[in-house]
Design a protein that fits this description.
CATH architecture: Beta Barrel
Distance between the termini: 16 Å
Strand content: over 45%
Largest sheet: 9 strands, antiparallel
Pfam family, one: Lipocalin_7
InterPro entries: Calycin, Fatty_acid-bd, ILBP
Radius of gyration: 14 Å
Number of strands: 11
Number of domains: 1
Strand order of the largest sheet: 4-3-2-1-11-10-9-8-7
GO molecular function: lipid binding
CATH superfamily: Calycin beta-barrel core domain
CATH topology: Lipocalin
Main location: cytoplasm
Number of helices: 2
CATH class: Mainly Beta
Subcellular location: Cytoplasm
Length: 127
């Protein structure tokens, strides 16, 4: 299955506790918790461009599977990391955060980020 497409956030679990744990200010947490972000994924072979728009904030990351890339985190920090792919699953570790993005079926994209004992889960539907 191809990741290509636009996905809108449908539901999320543990947003506030996860964002606090990574150091996002309370003001930004309160502003961001009810915004339905849109993720656009462009996949060309092993090359990916992921654009996440949350209100007025736009986060763009480009990477090639299995190769080191500089990725921007939710807090705006740039981190070098390697994204791996196993079928319909993309995994990457960013500063102690394990991120797993899975295309569950043709229309559902689930992203789970784990830091310590906090698991932040985002479910997105294809638009």
């Amino acid at each position: 299955m191809s990741f290509n497409g636009k996905y809108q956030l449908e539901s999320q679990e543990n947003f506030e506790s996860f964002m606090k744990a990574i150091g996002l200010p309370d003001e930004l947490i309160q502003k961001g918790k009810d915004i339905k972000s849109i993720s656009e994924i462009e996949e060309t072979g092993d090359n990916f461009k992921v654009t996440v728009t949350t209100g007025s904030k736009v986060l763009v990351n480009t990477f090639t599977i299995g190769k080191e890339a500089e990725l921007e985190t939710v807090t705006g920090e740039k981190v070098k990391a390697v994204v791996q792919r196993d079928g319909n699953t993309l995994t990457v570790s960013l500063k102690g955060i394990q991120s797993v993005t899975e295309l569950v079926d043709g229309n559902t994209l689930v992203n789970t980020m784990t830091l310590g004992g906090i698991v932040y889960k985002r479910t997105n539907k294809r638009m």
